[in-house]
Amino acid sequence: MNDNLETNKTIDDQKKSKNIRNFAIIAHIDHGKSTLSDRLIEVCGGIEMRDMKAQLLDSLDVEKQRGITVKAQAVSLQYKLNGEQYTLNLIDTPGHVDFSYEVKRSLKACEGAIVLVDASQGVQAQTIANIYKAIEEDLVLIPVLNKVDLPSSDPEGATAQVRDVLGIDEVPLQISAKTGLGVDKVIEKVIANVPDPLGDSEKELKALLVDGWFDQFLGVVLLVKIIDGQLKAGMHIRMMHTDASYSIDHVGVFTPKRKNLDVLKAGMVGFIIANIRTLSDVMLGDTVVEKSSLITEPLEGFQAVKPVVFCCIYPVDSSDYKILQVSLEKLKLHDGSLVIEHSNMPSLGAGFRCGFLGLLHLEVIQQRLEDEFDLNVIMTAPSVRYKITKVDGDVIYVNHPSEMPERNYIEKIEEPWVKVSIIINEEYTGPTMTLCDEKRGKQIGVDYLEGLNEHSKRCILNYRFPLSDIIFNFHDKLKSITKGYGSFEYEDDKYEEASIVPLSILVDGVTVEAIGSMIFKGNSEAYGRWVCQSLKESLDRQLFPIAIQAAIGGKIIARETVSALRKDVTAKCYGGDVSRKMKLLKKQKKGKKKMKEFMAGKVVVSQKAILKVLRRSQ
Description:
By secondary structure, the chain is of the alpha+beta class. Helices cover 26% and strands 33% of the residues. The protein has a nine-stranded mixed sheet with strand order 1-14-13-16-9-8-17-11-12. A six-stranded mixed sheet has the order 3-4-2-5-6-7, sandwiched between helices.
């Protein structure tokens, strides 16, 4: 193992914290953040050209396939300017709202941020959301316009949006991350504008735990920023929130290859390897101190990750249950925000109820299960966590009808709301507002922006929504009605009382738990009718009629019937008296009645039929 960990003793210039620059890149999806990261590594000589590849810092297959960043990554680069050697610590952050806590932790490790805007698309929603996080951390912002080499780019219009929407008066640098045009000027701007990291290497150790992931050979690798003090191999450290203690085996940086150092000093961002085998001992955002430290005040900003979207995951083949369990546990080691609980449904068998940070997080986990572990899984319809206050004052949280207490024990039910910012071209304002009204949105305000040209004036619609209404195909519908140009970002707001009911689906009188859901009462009838109709199209016909019902408690609100499959018992009658045919038909009717009594509750709802409903509901 030591052969794979080269000791880099040439980075001795890091003793001077004035030559360290810690910065991140803030950008909307597809604005070129990963491409700019590649060019920065290339210009600084962080990797040989023969080893260079696109999206170098995106280590997961799902990141490369979707063109997004899911996990924060850090790379320590060397750059010489005016005879001085500088260490540039780039923390590559996710951009999507589902990973906002990951972004927040990463920004806490920085003193500056590059605000990257596509010169052909202008400012988008996720850029605005992450700008606020950077301002909260008091970071120096460096505006940069990317893709200026494209024929469709409008640097002047994009510059106006950076000034008017983001509130940055500084004239942005113009670059092409793809070709490398202007990248060296970005580096020089970072060195000139981003301040020195604060901290004192002579003080007692205090470090911020930025990220952690599991390596099958090394255990849990921790990414930390040293606020004060020093970290060396052999030191005994303690995590303040979990109180877990370990002895450090190695410290170092990523360049982007892993390299050992003798010491990590104040201001530096690097890794710790301490033979940590369980990620549950590690809470991201925690404060790392020496084991014997008397420090009692942790660094600000720590918060426990709370999932907002829930669904159940079941293997298509029940014999794959153990494989699914091991696979989810491995993903949990890589992703501390994934919540896993055991679950069991008669129609789907044994599985797991999982909590996610959002729909993209859910989709990423599903894709990783399929790509990395070659598993075919069934995922139930996503739901949110509802807050129930019981008559005796107890408060519980539920996300499935099976968890609901009896109605007479419930005082009130509350659902989570979110604040949403939607950026669209002005011509799509009407259809977008109609969509928002359909999703129970409450308008807060509308801000009009200057477009990139006279034909593309834009506006920001500020709304509040119930979270349950935007996790179902809101994004797809927004993209459809805005011809792909609409974008939105949301943040958690608060719980509000609502009329939420548990909707159950019954097939031949038996509840199909996999399709049950918690739903707003005003939408329950339409949704119940749709589910019944979908199941009617999917179920195999039997020799007796099958009733498909949607119910709220004991009240049936929708029903469809799969008609009986009729066998022509009179086919063998070629003539004779009609009474012979009537006798056969009466015998068949009697047999069907007997079969129905015998088969009551025995209708099999196939996984294919359930999967069809669940996929369409998403």
